Inverse folding.
């Protein structure tokens, strides 16, 4: 595990340096929105999605931290952050804190938070276009749109406080969370010119860890503390959110997350030694406490 | 003028048909957001930006309504509408009506309006990627981001009710409005494989009509009526918005719009007969009453 932790730390440093280089300075006009973008981007995220791009790229033969992989890694983190900024707005989840700090609309104001999210989304595409690879732009868009992340968010919000089926919870998880994680893996492979069969197996891996990621999130909202997580716990239940443990049980949710992790690991077995970091990340995500 | 009106009508029909074909049906899950996207897209817009893409593409030798030009035309209208939906939100301009109908957050709800705008932005990039042309994705992103449209929106909001210089008003106009109009022209030309010198002249045209467009908008907010415009008039003054007539005069604003229109027309003179629709659009935008 220690080499995995070192790898994740290395990825974090790489993507943070890339982001710092790419993002406009708060001294550039209009300063306020650039400040908000940087405030939100450097809020202590774990950089899991960028690490998945870098690891998938390397597993498919790319050299660690090559330019295009770094651009895509920075881009996916901007897109993830864009979704969090909008998700936290009063008209959505109405969260005042994220990662232990005031959310963007609390630290700045609502209008600027809407525009700052928009700007991160647009800038992420500009950065992604610098890879010169149209396929990754298409992949990212499909993962983010109404047949992906945003579709999941809509159904999530519309299901609050209502009786939902396990099928609906799975739809929400598949789209709201797993789609962007799956896309990160696929994009990493695409930028290493992986063949279609390899991409298909990696996609299977990505979908499985993506689902496991959200199931674990739901579990932690019940079992963890606000201090450890850096955000309110118990909020899912309070809002009547559609979660896996709410519809099954904590035990069943843990079993399911373990099964998904095993599925993910077996999907990348064919890569042999090259899959070591992907296998490590799958285990890490299952066992994480934050 | 009648042939220009026919041309604009032909463009409107073309882009509406493309949008109708591209946009997910409200029957597709999640139905609510697809309904909002269609509600906002088919709200009777004039489709000026798509017409500029089609006209610039044709002026540079593209056949009318070729697939890539249509994709880009649909994309720019989605991006324009995305910006309007977010602009109308209570935390921004707080507008209840747009084109004579309730704005998206009034007809649906605020959360869905935020996500619907996001989804249009993302889908616009997916559609733009179908052209297979990376350069147009870069061009569009630069026009939309903090060095373009969003930058202009931020300074516009931050300048409300404050004393501003003519330089600031020009910054707002250049970015909030002219950048996307300029990009439409450039993208139309790029998709017809125009050379750099041609693109540079068209860019000059686009920037001039883009600025004129906003100056005329400011004038109409003073001289027109709510019935004719389909939105509240006098709202700029009420909000202490930074406008051209507020800092100069109605007369001077009209003179400036006329000068910009002349600049635009002279920039495309070298295209001869091929520029007839671009010249017509410049005149049309100067003389419009809505």
């Amino acid at each position: 595990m220690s080499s995995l932790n070192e790898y994740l730390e290395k990825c974090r440093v790489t993507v943070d340096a890339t982001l710092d280089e790419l993002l406009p300075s708060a001294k550039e006009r209009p300063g306020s929105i650039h400040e908000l973008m940087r405030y939100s981007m450097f809020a202590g995220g774990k950089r899991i999605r960028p690490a998945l791009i870098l690891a998938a790229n390397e597993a498919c033969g790319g050299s660690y931290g090559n330019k295009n992989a770094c651009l895509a890694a920075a881009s996916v983190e901007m897109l993830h952050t864009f979704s969090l900024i909008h998700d936290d707005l009063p008209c959505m989840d109405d969260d005042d804190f994220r990662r232990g700090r005031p959310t963007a609309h609390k630290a700045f104001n609502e209008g600027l938070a809407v525009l700052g999210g928009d700007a991160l989304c647009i800038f992420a595409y500009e950065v992604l276009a610098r890879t010169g690879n149209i396929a990754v732009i298409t992949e990212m868009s499909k993962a983010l749109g109404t047949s992906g992340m945003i579709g999941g968010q809509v159904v999530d919000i519309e299901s609050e406080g209502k009786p939902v089926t396990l099928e609906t919870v799975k739809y929400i998880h598949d789209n709201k969370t797993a789609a962007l994680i799956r896309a990160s893996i696929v994009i990493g492979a695409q930028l290493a010119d992986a063949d279609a069969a390899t991409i298909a197996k990696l996609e299977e891996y990505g979908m499985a860890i993506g689902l496991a990621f959200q199931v674990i999130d739901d579990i932690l909202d019940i079992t963890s503390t606000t201090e450890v997580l850096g955000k309110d716990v118990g909020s899912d239940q309070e809002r009547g959110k559609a979660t896996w443990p709410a519809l099954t049980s904590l035990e069943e949710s843990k079993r399911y997350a373990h099964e998904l992790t095993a599925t993910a690991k077996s999907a990348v077995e064919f890569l042999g030694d090259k899959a070591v970091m992907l296998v490590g990340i799958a285990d890490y995500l299952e066992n994480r406490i934050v």
About this structure: The mean pLDDT of chain A is 95. Chain A has 15 helices and two strands. The radius of gyration of chain A is 18 Å. The first strand of chain A starts at residue 97 and ends at 98.
